[in-house]
Structure formats: C-alpha cells, structure tokens
Automatic annotation (TrEMBL):
Protein name from the UniProt record: Carboxypeptidase-like regulatory domain-containing protein
A GO MF term: carboxypeptidase activity
Source species, domain of life: Bacteria
Keywords: Carboxypeptidase, Hydrolase, Protease
Keyword Protease set for record: yes
Length: 499
C-alpha cells in the first residue's frame, strides 16, 4: 500500500508539473494592410508540428514540456510573408503579417515556361510520388457541425376515426418539432491507416446540442404509442398510402417494438460508445477517400480534367514556395469550379478550393422534391519528413434540400374481423420543406509512417464516450490543441429545461 500511495503521489506530482510547464498561446492573425483576419494561416511550432487558424483567424496553441527549448513560433499564409514571433511577445495578442511581393525570377521563365495543359498533365503524373498513400499515424482533430432547418411544415388534418388522433393532437405535434436545430461533434484522436482503411483511437470527444428537443419528441412519441396500443388491434396491418403509392406494415411487429422499447433503449445506450467510434471512423475514412486526387471521387476535376477548362491566372507564395494559381471551370455539364495552387518545383497541388456550380442531384416528381445542392471544400497539404505531401487541413460543406407536398393516409385493416376489413383511418395533407447542411473540419497536427506490423498492433479505445455539453465550454479542451471554434459555436446554448 505504501508503494502504491507513493506511485500515485509521484504521478500526481508529474501531471501537476506538466500543467504548470504548459503554456497556452491565444491569438489572432491579421493582415497588416487591411486589418482583416487571415483564415487558415499555419502556426508552426517545429518542422512537423503546428496548427491552423479558423475562419476568423483565431488560434489557441498549447506548448508543453517537450517545447521547452522553443522560443518562437512561425506564422505563414498563402501570399504573405512568413514571420517568426517570439513566444513571450505573442501571448493574448494580435499577430500582424503582410502580403509578400511576387518576384518573377527565372524559376518561372526557364524550364517552367509550360502550357497549362502540360502543367495539369504533370500534376496528374506525379500524384503517386507527391502524396502520402502509405500507412501512417496521424494525430488529428475532427469537428462535425450539422444544421437542420424546417422552412415549411403545414399539416392539414382531414379525417380520423380515432378520437384521440384529432386536429388538436396533430397541431401539438407540429408545435413541438424544432424548426432549427444544431448539432456539433468534436473529436481528438489518433488515426492509424491509409486513405482506404483505418482505425481510430479516441482521446477525447464532446457533443454539443439541445437535449430538450429530444425530450419533447420522446414524450410525444410515448403519447402516440399509448393511443396506438389502445385503438389498434394486434392482428391488424397498416396500409400507408400517399396518392397512388402504398405499403403495408404488420401491427404485431410495431407493438412488439413498443413493448420492448425500454429494453431496446437500454441496449442502445450500452452500445452508444461503440456506435460513436464507428460513426467517427466511418466519417473520417469517407472524408479522406474524398481527397481530390483519389480515383472515382465526385469532385472529378482532376481525374477527368478533359472535361474542364484550366487557366493559369497568377503566381503566389505558400510557405516560401512559389506556386501557380490555376482556375478551373466546367466545359459543358460538369459540376465544379475552383482554384488549384500548384508548387512550381514538384507540381504538387498544395491547396485546392472548389465548389459545385449546379445541383449534383435533382429529383422532382409527384410532389416530392430532392436536391443534393451544396458541395464546397478547401484542402491544404504540407510536406512531411518523408518528402511526401499529407493532408494538413480540410474544410467541407455538404447540403441537401427536401420538399414533400402530398396527401398521406394511414389505414388500419384486419382480415380476421367480420365485415369490412377497414377498421380505422387517419388522413392528412403534408406540405413540408427541409434543408440539411453539414460542415466538416479536420486539422492534422502531425503524421508519422507506420509499418504493417505497427498498424496491426494499433488498438481502438472503445471506452471513451463523448461528453454532452449543453453550451460551449472553453475549459473542455484546455490543455489540448484543436482548431478554434467559430463565433456560432461559442454562442450556442441549449434552451432552459422546462420544470
């Protein structure tokens, strides 16, 4: 016991020293000429470690004991001078950087005097040697923001043979459905793998949303279940019709699910941790597989470059590297436009910004309207110690639109009852419009190569649960490097609980 107590005291002392020695730098990067914030600027601590500013130019950097010998940080952004700033002068201050003048030296006019087609062809040829496709260990921070907006929800009550399912109840259901909802997930993790397969070890995670919306809907669901059990016969089936279309659902299976609802909920709660890990792994793998140079990606402007117009419009610098600025747009019916920033020396795309110019999918028939209408992305890459480029930062927006303007009937039928099969009917008219938008952010702090053996031996921590937050808490990520949240996240707070 004495040995164990000493060990605990030693560990506590060691952790205290780490906290004391850690230094937090909170600052903002500003354009010296325009006084405007500079988003996505790189804050470098060492050759392979650093963070990035958010869209408001803000960053929060933790320097631990391993950085005790570092006295400066380096700030750089596309088109700006790279500057070194003394750590003691940057705490809680503003960092000003100024645009860098373009010098058209011989690097641009000798063997680099290429046509745009030759530049794009060389970019494509060098993808295998320029980018890191190997197994790697990446320490990264992943934020997912979801925004759901019901722009229209009109439910017209027409008929009901069940007394409790009246217009008053339908109106109350419409009232409690939130017109706007936000959901944020933040995860700090180690990602082991390549661009096709991977495992994640979650270090810490948080969920930020309004739980009260769920409580209201759960109460209404239980009320509907009670009405359903009371009025619908177990051996019936439901015919759900919308105009000419219909489907059958056995009532027995619905009743079984409602009777076992608490048991199922308990089981789901126990599995929530595993589900969260699976969802995060799936989302990260999907985003990494969507990088512009991969095959069969929706953003096909490079692997189907013949369908796009490319124009060399200017030159600039990124981290003291001269780059071509190349705009692209669809020739005919393709989907994207954007800008490539191509290193003039090795022809690697070290930054790309693009967005869709039309709906990626558009379906409209018989009162149902669906659009896949938003795909906007920004990707930044940096060269690692293996001289391969790896993802440094990704920001992606995806958005959808759904409209429904149709009649809806729910009819209970029972073939075991004498006389008419139809027992009950609920008839409604639904006119609804809903938009759904997601924003993904990934910042990779460092990346190291892995052997196959190291990858196979890496494990996933399935015991970490995301912590629920009803409002933004600046203390939650204290001691960890993340990408700073924007003002909308900092302002978010759940509605007060109803007594």
């Amino acid at each position: 016991m004495i040995y164990n107590s000493s060990l605990v005291v030693s560990i506590a002392f060691f952790m205290t020293c780490l906290v004391i020695n850690a230094q937090t730098i909170t600052s903002r990067v500003i354009d010296k000429k325009t006084n405007q914030p500079i988003p996505y600027a790189t804050i470098q601590v060492s050759e392979d470690q650093g963070i990035i500013t958010n869209e408001e130019g803000r960053f929060n950097l933790i320097l631990g004991s391993k950085h005790s010998n570092i006295d400066s940080i380096y700030v750089s952004s596309m088109g700006y001078e790279k500057v070194g700033v003394s750590i003691k002068n940057v705490v809680d201050s503003i960092i000003y950087i100024q645009p860098k003048a373009i010098e058209l030296k011989s690097v641009f006019i000798s063997n680099k005097n290429l046509t745009i087609d030759e530049i794009i062809d060389t970019v494509k040829e060098r993808i295998p040697e320029n980018y890191n496709f190997e197994l790697s260990h990446r320490r990264l921070f992943f934020r997912e923001s979801e925004f759901n907006t019901i722009k229209k929800l009109n439910i017209k009550f027409k008929e009901s043979t069940i007394r409790e399912l009246d217009k008053k109840l339908i109106d109350s259901v419409v009232t409690i459905i939130p017109r706007k909802s936000e959901y944020y997930t933040e995860t700090l993790c180690d990602f082991y793998g390549d661009l096709e397969e991977g495992k994640i070890n979650i270090i810490k995670a948080a969920e930020l949303y309004d739980k009260n919306n769920e409580v209201s809907m759960e109460a209404m669901t239980k009320r509907m279940e009670t009405i359903f059990k009371k009025n619908v016969k177990p051996d019936s089936y439901l015919k759900i019709k919308s105009g000419l279309f219909g489907t059958k659902v056995q009532v027995d299976s619905i009743l079984e699910q409602t009777e076992n609802g608490d048991e199922i909920k308990d089981k789901i709660d126990k599995e929530n941790t595993g589900d969260f890990l699976k969802n995060q792994r799936r989302a990260l793998k999907s985003l990494l597989s969507s990088l512009f140079f991969n095959e069969d990606v929706m953003s096909n402007f490079l692997n189907k470059s013949g369908r796009y117009d490319f124009k060399l419009v200017d030159y600039t610098y990124i981290d003291d590297q001269s780059v071509y600025i190349i705009n692209f747009s669809p020739k005919r019916s393709e989907d994207f436009k954007g800008t490539l920033y191509v290193n003039t020396e090795d022809f690697a795309v070290i930054r790309v910004d693009y967005e869709n110019v039309k709906n990626l999918r558009n379906f409209k028939l018989l009162g149902i309207h669906y659009q896949d209408n938003l795909y906007r992305a920004k990707m930044l890459f940096t060269k690692g110690t293996n001289q391969k480029y790896d993802l440094k930062f990704l920001e992606m927006y995806r958005g959808e639109f759904f409209g429904f303007d149709r009649p809806l009937k729910v009819i209970e039928k029972n073939k075991h009852v004498k006389g008419r099969r139809k027992q009950n009917e609920l008839s409604l008219g639904i006119d609804a419009v809903n938009t759904y938008k997601r924003k993904y952010e990934i910042v990779v702090f460092d990346s190291k190569q892995l052997t196959k053996t190291e990858y196979n031996s890496s494990i996933e921590n399935k015991s970490i649960k995301p912590q629920y937050l009803s409002k933004y808490d600046p203390q939650f990520w204290q001691g960890y490097n993340i990408i700073e949240p924007n003002a909308a996240i900092k302002r978010f707070t759940a509605t007060p609980e109803v007594e």
